[in-house]
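To: structure subgroup
Subject: Chain for Friday's discussion

All,

I'm putting the inputs and outputs inline so they're searchable in the archive.
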Amino acid sequence: MLKFVNFLFFASIGLLFNLQTLKATEIQRIVSLAPSLTQNLYYLDAEDKLVGCTSFCNATSGAEIVASAIKVNIEKVVVLKPDLVIATTITDIETLEMLKKMGLNVVVYPKADSFEEICQQFTDLAKIIGKEQVATKIIDNSTKTLEQLKKKIPLGKKRKVFLQIGASPIYTVFPGTFMDEYITKAEAVNIASDLTRGAITRESVIIRNPDIIFIVTMGVAGEEEKKTWQNIKELEAAKNNKIFIIDSNKACLPTPVTFVETLDTMIHLMHP
């Protein structure tokens, strides 16, 4: 049902294109406007097709930088003559409409809110570019790894977890997001489970008193946040030395592989 609703939404604004007339073998030049999609191309062994990406993409194929996190240089994209442009809803509608008017094939993926949706989008992209077998193998391996990780989680009282993804102001993850699933799949409790948005105060975190704190890497800011939490001695996480920094290049990237890698890291830190 969710997939159908997303289809209706994108179809209504003219951003979802029917690529049935474009064969996978005809897709030799791809522009990616999202780091997660760029990473997926690498996992699918399709990095040789990548000709353009954002400045935040971890691309080593020599692809042209055509966008920042949000702003897209439409002229650069057009000059590259891509057979396919892939994007997420982070890219503004006006830009995507302009690319459409330029005659480009564009596929827009909605925000993935779960591991299941991450895998579905990965599979969809693989089908478009003719990499179904590669995708199937990766998803099978990722799913098996998830099952193995579950067995490593000891039975008992569930730990309360605070996952911080921003500072000044402080932001956290809330239900209905793929990052919340890191916590639930680790058989823990998200202290922000009652929230509907990410903003949270330091005082609120202290009151909720998490057993474990995970801070997504934010460079110097991340280290400063860790020190701040460590100095609040009434926190259970500080008392038990359970405050950790994890890599944003993996934790914030919705791909099947990075999801499992991040969960693996968190479970091992929670249950050494």
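Points worth raising on Friday:
Strands lie at 30-32, 50-54, 64-67, 84-88, 106-109, 160-166, 171-172, 189-190, 212-216, 243-246.
The first strand starts at residue 30 and ends at 32.

D.
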